[in-house]
TrEMBL record:
Listed name of the protein: SagB family peptide dehydrogenase
UniProt-listed InterPro entries: Bacteriocin_Proc_Enz, Nitroreductase, Nitroreductase-like, SagB-type_dehydrogenase
Stretches assigned to the Nitroreductase domain: 95-223, 405-487
Pfam families for this protein: Nitroreductase (PF00881)
Amino acid sequence: MTGPEDGPGRAFWRTTLEDLAAAMETRQSEYGNPDEPLKFKIYRGRPRRPLTGRVPRTLTAVEAFDEVALSTLLHYGYGISRQEFDTNGTWPYHRMVASARCLFGVQLYVCLADGVHHYDAAHHGLVHLRDGDHRALLARATGSAGALPEAVLVLSAMFSKTAYIYRDYAYRLCTQEAGLLAGNLDLVARSMGLRALLHHQFVDEPVNRLLGLDSDEEPALLVLPLHPAGADLRREPVATTAAALASTIDPIDPPVVRSGLQVAPACPRLTEVNRASLRTDTTAFATAEPAAPGGSGTEPLPLPAAEPPAVDLAQVLRARDSGPGVFRPVASRVDGTELWARLARARTGVTSDAVPAGAPVPLEIFLTVGDLAGVPPGAYRLDRYTGALHPVAGADAISAIERACLPGTVFRGMNAVVHLVGDRDWAFDTFGDRGYRVIHQEAGLLAHRVCVAAAAQGLSGRIVNAYHAGAVRTALGLTDRRHTPLFQILLARTGPGGHVIVPVELEEVG
């Protein structure tokens, strides 16, 4: 699918990735305004299903997808991990994944044999929205059919929560965060012996109708069926239209406590690109591999083979953080060879409908080294096939990255900076205007894997979008504007912040 050269998706891309000042012009930073949203989505008058608080402290393969397995998946997937005090109401609740200002605009829905539910993270339970088994219907919405999954997870963007601060720019943040959450759900599922299939492509109307969502205010973004690891994952293509499938679903309008702004009138550019991304026919779905950046022509860095120590994902997720409010690195010795070995595998093992079967995550990883033991300072591209580090810039690369950022970020003592680089033309030529959200969701998935790799070595990972894409492109030696840095992740050990943070623990099984 080839999108129009000046369609809403490409126009939004130029604003949000090539013109930082324009992207931020409607942003507002004040809290306590009348349109401040509630911290959580709240349903009224719907049946609630508490999930067991007795979850394992470690993640291992499960024998059956029972009540404990479901509770474990949701707790480690999107549960609350910490509560922060003395915040003046700004961001008191932290979850297992990162979110801009801890606004957590992405919502998680769970479709089981007994019905459709919303995950209520505040109470670790499910809110029942609709009776019946709709897993096969969701498969048809993704244009495929095959073995029935254990569950289907649907991720949506409740734009009003993030747009409260970021207005139109919230579209970029919500699509990024949908990818972050999908990346974590995929990792947790794998640790439990399950497989997640990531569907960026589906006909939107029936999925939104099934969940009772307004496509302007809270559209579905990703559909993730979960299968046992040994299940037959072969999928048969199914041709259907949004209108035909939606006609089989009775509409629902579950009562929700309204809060926040009305997105459509308040965020016209967000609304335009969101509407342009909607799909009506599964026959338009496509896959392709992006073009890799031109080779640097340099020999790979000679590094010893490394096998990073095994870690328990549950422990790493409990420890993962984005650092304190002011990200101030603390000089420390970090094993660069181990970090490289972890990053080298980050692109593999994901099943997504954005690329052909067996292809890696469709973004490139660039590692700019400040202070890593065993890896000289400089900027490197990780080879997509071998994971080797190819130098692309010299020892002053970290300073060039610092100059590309808005003032305020402290780079002194930074261990490393990771940039995830995507192919703009691949996204829009393959998916049309939906390409904006597809590439940002894929980038979010990979970004979460980077943050988990960092957390395994005691590093905080701070995602910072406040950079000038053109300057970063130059610093990384990228010569084609189609290759754009989508994520910037600062990696460092950081000192304590000024607030009291208390872990939130469920009861341990045993």
